[in-house]
Specification:
The chain is an alpha+beta fold. It folds into three domains: about 5-120, Orthogonal Bundle (Butyryl-Coa Dehydrogenase, subunit A, domain 1), CATH 1.10.540.10; about 125-230, Beta Barrel (Butyryl-CoA Dehydrogenase, subunit A, domain 2); about 235-385, Up-down Bundle (Butyryl-CoA Dehydrogenase, subunit A, domain 3), CATH 1.20.140.10. The protein contains 14 helices and ten strands. It has a four-stranded mixed sheet with strand order 1-4-5-8. A four-stranded antiparallel sheet has the order 2-3-7-6, with no helix packed on it. Strand 4 and strand 5 (about 185-190) form a beta hairpin. Helix 12 (about 315-340) packs antiparallel against helix 14. The radius of gyration is 21 Å and the shape is globular. One of its GO terms (molecular function) is acyl-CoA dehydrogenase activity.
Length: about 400
């Protein structure tokens, strides 16, 4: 059996890392501060990523995709390790939550119309689920789509939508039936349709280069052929994608912690106070040791769970634990990184400052830390015969 370490370090994935590292160093790092000031990524970055084959990873071949989920995770990890940020990955790879449902449904017209142009970097896709009055409770959404002949008429609002200000299409959770999750469907809404509007560009603590929007739908007419799958299946489609999203956020958290540790190690060796490097101080040495321990533990566990999930194992509770483990390690490491950097760690010119503010979303997005604990508790208490799986 291939170990998790071997799975992440095949010759092909080492070559992929080299490609991503070069792309990050050349295209991302020199421009990142300017993109944060602008509040968004340039559209041509999507095209450049697509030309390297990065956007197609993890999608089925019939939809123009290649590779698998571990390839996707490697790309996210390496961008951060090479000096990029999770803000960049969240915006550049929004399609990974925006169009997988369409690819999985398998409608040839929808794949040609929506998925292939997105994987080629020519169009940007978002996922519209969260609403002002319905956050984690997906079954409570109120945005409604009413069938009118060969069209649906959509009314409602969405918020916290990643890449929402730049999106060409939004895979939107709408209510086509009654109350609860059985009444939810997914509908692709092109953003140039009359009645669609970006009502607010949201300002955030972190992920400054990743645009986030509040959207409104006022009598938006959408062709019925834009329905993804069948009516009433939207909730199940959304839930099926949550596990991969949580694993990616786990990978992002570990990569952020690992990069912050590397930056802090270098700083501690180079920075001199009272005539000696910071690394000579026992308190700093012990902080670095604890940071390294937490990174190693989280990385090992996240990779193991990712490998098992990729192999088809039912590891839902372990994914929740992996996310919380990675986020906890990241929180500790970025905090200590800023502390050891001192005043420089508080400056925008310091990379650890960016990781500090960017990392805060990781315990919220994709399911909060508290929801992850509830998933673990439910499995532990409802099915005690399974015990703590390893």
């Amino acid at each position: 059996m291939t170990s998790a370490h071997e799975l992440w370090n095949t010759d092909e994935r080492k070559a992929l890392r080299d490609t991503v590292a070069a792309f990050t160093t050349r295209e991302i790092v020199p421009n990142l501060a300017a993109w944060e000031d602008a509040g968004e990524l340039p559209r041509d970055l999507h095209v450049k990523a697509a030309e390297l084959g990065l956007l197609e990873l993890g999608f089925p071949e019939k939809a123009g995709g290649a590779g698998d989920f571990v390839d996707v995770a490697v790309v996210h990890e390496q961008i951060v390790l090479s000096g990029g940020s999770t803000g960049v990955t969240s915006a550049l790879f929004t399609h990974s939550i925006g169009v997988p449902h369409i690819a999985a449904a398998g409608d040839p017209w929808q794949i040609d119309e929506f998925v292939r142009p997105v994987l080629a970097g020519r169009r940007i896709a978002s996922l519209g689920v969260t609403e002002p009055e319905a956050g984690s409770d997906v079954g409570a959404i109120t945005t409604r789509a009413v069938r009118d002949g060969d069209e649906y008429v959509v009314d409602g609002a969405k918020t916290y939508i990643t890449s929402g200000t730049r999106a060409d299409l939004v895979t939107t959770a709408v209510r086509t039936g009654g109350d609860g999750h059985r009444g939810i469907s997914l509908l692709v809404v092109e953003t140039d349709r009359p009645g669609f509007a970006v009502t607010s560009r949201l300002r955030k603590m972190g992920w400054l280069c990743s645009d986030t929007a509040e959207l409104s739908f006022a009598g938006v007419r959408v062709p019925a052929r834009n329905l993804v799958g069948f009516e009433g299946t939207g909730f199940a489609q959304i839930m099926q994608r949550f596990e991969s999203e949580r694993l990616i956020m786990s990978v992002q958290a570990v990569a952020t912690a690992e990069r912050s540790l590397a930056l802090t190690r270098r700083w501690a060796l180079d920075r001199r106070t009272f005539g000696a490097p910071l690394a000579d101080r026992q308190v700093v040495r012990h902080k670095l040791a604890e940071m390294a321990r937490q990174v190693a533990v989280a990385k090992t566990y996240v990779r193991d769970v990712t490998a098992r999930w990729s192999a088809g194992e039912d590891v839902g509770p372990e994914i929740a634990m992996a996310k919380n483990t990675a986020v906890a390690a990241c929180d500790t490491v970025v905090n200590e990184a800023v502390q050891i950097h001192g005043g420089m760690g508080y400056m925008r010119e310091s990379e650890v400052e960016r990781h500090y503010r960017d990392s805060r979303i990781l315990g919220i997005g994709g399911g909060t830390t508290e929801i992850m604990n509830e998933l673990v508790a439910r499995d532990l208490l409802d099915r005690p015969e399974r015990g703590v799986r390893s």
